[in-house]
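Box S1 | Example of a co-folding query
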Amino acid sequence: MSQEKRSIADFIFQPEEDTEEFRDTISTVDARGKRVWVYPKKPEGFFTRWRTYVSYVLLTILFVMPFIRIGGEPLFLFNVLERQFILFGQLFTPQDFHLFVFAMLTLIVFIILFTVVYGRIFCGWICPQTIFMEGVFRRIEYAIEGDANAQRRLEAAPWNGEKIRKKGLKYAIFYGISVLISNVFLAYIIGSDQVLRIIREPVTTHLGGFVAMLVFAAVFYFVFAYMREQVCIVVCPYGRLQGVLLDRDSIVVAYDFVRGEPRSKLKKSRPAEAVAGVPLQVAGDCIDCRLCVQVCPTGIDIRNGTQLECINCTVCIDACDAVMDKIERPRGLIRYDSYNGIVEKKKRRFTPRMAAYTGVLLALIGLEVFLLNYRVSVEALVLRTPGKLYQEVDDNRLSNLYNYELTNKTNQEYRDIRFRLLDVRGEIQMIGKVAPLTKGGQSSGSFFIVLEKSEVKGHKNPVYVEVMVDGKVIDKVKTNFLGPIR
Ligand code: SF4
Ligand code: SF4
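Box S1 (continued) | Returned holo structure for iron/sulfur cluster
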């Protein structure tokens, strides 16, 4: 058998020619680096309708939540200024930082797992940026300026009465909504009562809060009036992570290139030898009408494949389905599917990567539940006063001095706070009274632990102190009692 002689050149990696030039640029920036303003065509269809319903529900939740109270406390409060956090009416303080870290880790793993399986479904359906941009601000724009072409015409027109009126009205409404969003946003940070106070009382009495509200309003206005899709493309870290999170089994909004290509103009009236030399029998279902591109709020062509800019908003699905209805082809040329689903017609698989993320996610959830379950309502810290040795109280007893610090992690106030020793003959002698614990507050002080000499076995002796609030043991603390060196 003859074997062809192979040269060294045969072993050098020959990269395939990269034809995906669209990945070298982003659609919203031109060759000179200038912003290309996107005028998406007004969408309609099944997914758009359902996304609208979902956005109504989420907007209602967002606006109502700061006003909901549980036992007099807000449902959610993230007061970073006073370091008070309330979740479902439960107070969390900086001492619960570890719970926050685990909760964040759990959330990140959940987001990763969710993205691996379902792609950017969050961006299209749940993200506040998309909901406000597409569900609120864009709708106002359509109502005032009309659909995409009317908007383009208005932009190109000279500054006449109509343009001033339309643009002025639009931006005034945009700013009004930005002020509203800013107030709601502030309500999550400083509480709805405080926001209502800022609104009702003279500006001079809440100058700081008023300035914060104006700054937030200006940021929201800038985001929704000017930044728009650039937030998703350039700023959002979640969007930037897609490249590493998605794989060929991830479900995304995808164009079925197997069915759609080779694309060619016309369909119904296409002659046997179709345009561009594509014979009818091999022509794909895509008629290259570009409606899917015209409706896209990030200005991309989904037929190029999954792209960083795609927020999975589904409007290209609706646009294409409407076209398929018209040319009497089955819907779903653009649909939710994975790359493998399109190429190999494979059903979704539970991949080892998903299994690994699920395992980590379950472990983190388990840990979080465990930690929440063992979270004490009053946390006590008892430390021997540094630099002090033991003292002889009398012939039979020794004493050590301790400092204590109590942190109230609840919304209640506690007045009856006591300490008691556990499983040892001795007593605790308080120095002064224990100050009442206000909600979320702290108190500190000192006490002596006095032990029978027979209990002091060595230089360092572990002792346990129970903290009792209103007659109930709420925490147990281990500390050391110093005795003579033997
Ligand atoms: S809307 Fe559908 S048919 Fe028209 S260009 Fe896009 S993929 Fe092709
Ligand atoms: S490609 Fe489709 S799903 Fe992606 S952003 Fe554009 S319209 Fe939305």
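The chain has 15 helices and 15 strands. The pocket of iron/sulfur cluster (ligand 1) is lined by residues 255, 260, 286-292, 303, 319-320, 323, 333-334 (CB under 6 Å).
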